[in-house]
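Run: sequence + zinc ion -> complex structure.
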Amino acid sequence: MTKNNQPKNPREVLDELGAKWSPDLDAYLGGETDASKIRCTLCLEAPCACPEFGSDAYFALINRRHGRRS
Ligand SMILES: [Zn+2]
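>> structure
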């Protein structure tokens, strides 16, 4: 078991995001929409309008999407 008090690294953050996929993915897989119309998991925009990857704003957005205060 790993300890839970270590800061998350970006890889772990991305793994968590992978578990929260776009709400449009089912429609895409069902052929009801195309990839360009899938909303981003994080900013919910299509196409994605996220802040620059790795920036403070990017991680703040991740924290908001996970319902955390940072
Ligand atoms: Zn985005």
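>> summary
Residues 40, 42-43, 45, 48-50 surround zinc ion (CB under 6 Å). Residues 56-65 form the longest helix (10 residues).
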